[in-house]
Structure formats: structure tokens, C-alpha cells
């Protein structure tokens, strides 16, 4: 049964401007292994974390580093969960789709229980 759906889109150029204007944002939003990705990949990962938040609908805020976007050997994106988010998704299947094209990054998350 579907327990939550979230979707988010990010304007890549605007996101890059935010990263340049506020250098500490990269460390705040992304884990160490995510930070060296190209800006379009960072924008898609940010969209993924926002979509996850929407799908979870938590009562309180979540920590950005508790959800890390990884890629399997075949390129399929997935989440690596820690902390509070790991507790919230325990026993659930979390599906993630990412895309970036024409200056826009997007992500969709579906949570099944």
C-alpha cells in the first residue's frame, strides 16, 4: 500500500547561484560523499531530499544528512538512511526516481508499507 508520495523540482541555475552565494550550503545539505557531484546532480539530490520530506510528512524537521542519495552499480538512484529518517522508514520500501534536463532537476519518491 502506498503510504506517501513526494515530488520536487529545482531550477539548476538558481540552485548553483545559491551554492555560490552561500558556500556553507553544500556542507549543510549534502553528506561528504555527495558534495563533489556536478551541480545538476546536486540539484537532483536536493530535489530527492525535498520529495522524501513531502512523502514522509513528518511532524518535525528532518536532518539533511540523514538521507544520502547513492547510485547502485547499474546507475539506479537510492537512499541510504540514518538517524530519525531511518526510524521513520523502517519496514517500508522507498522508491526514488531522479532526472535533470533543460535546466531543471526533478525527483519523485514513493513510500510503500
Can you give me a brief rundown of this structure?
This protein is an alpha+beta fold. It has helices at residues 12-21, 24-29, 39-56, 83-88, and strands spanning 2-11, 67-71, 77-81, 93-101, 104-112.
CATH topology tier name: Ribosomal Protein L22, Chain A
Uncertain ranges: none
Classified by CATH, the class is Alpha Beta
Task: Please write the string of helix (H) and strand (E) elements.
Answer: EHHHEEHEE
Distance between the termini: 6 Å
Could you say how many structural domains there are in total?
1
Largest sheet: 3 strands, antiparallel
Please state the CA-atom Rg, rounded to the nearest Å: 13 Å
Strand order of the largest sheet: 1-5-4
CATH second-level architecture: Alpha-Beta Complex
**Content-based structural category:** alpha+beta
Q: Could you give me the name of the CATH homologous superfamily?
A: 4'-phosphopantetheinyl transferase domain
What is the percent of helical residues?
Answer: 25-40%
General shape = globular
Q: Please indicate the percent range of residues in DSSP E strands (runs of 2 or more).
A: 25-35%
* Overall number of strands: 5
Show the helix and strand layout.
Elements: E1 2-11, H1 12-21, H2 24-29, H3 39-56, E2 67-71, E3 77-81, H4 83-88, E4 93-101, E5 104-112
Antiparallel strand pairs: 1-5, 2-3, 4-5
GO molecular function: holo-[acyl-carrier-protein] synthase activity; magnesium ion binding
Domain 4'-phosphopantetheinyl transferase: 4-86
Keywords: Fatty acid biosynthesis, Fatty acid metabolism, Lipid biosynthesis, Lipid metabolism, Magnesium, Metal-binding, Transferase
Amino acid at each position: 500500500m502506498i503510504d506517501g508520495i513526494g515530488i520536487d523540482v529545482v531550477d539548476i541555475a538558481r540552485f548553483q547561484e545559491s551554492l555560490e552565494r552561500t558556500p556553507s550550503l553544500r556542507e549543510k545539505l549534502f553528506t561528504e560523499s555527495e558534495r563533489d557531484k556536478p551541480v545538476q546532480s546536486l540539484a537532483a539530490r536536493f530535489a530527492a531530499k525535498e520529495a522524501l520530506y513531502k512523502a514522509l510528512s513528518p511532524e518535525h524537521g528532518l536532518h539533511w544528512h540523514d538521507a544520502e542519495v547513492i547510485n547502485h552499480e547499474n546507475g539506479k538512484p537510492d537512499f541510504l538512511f540514518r538517524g530519525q529518517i531511518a526510524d521513520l522508514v523502517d519496514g517500508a520500501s522507498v522508491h526514488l526516481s531522479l532526472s535533470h534536463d533543460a535546466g531543471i532537476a526533478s525527483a519523485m519518491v514513493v513510500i510503500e508499507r
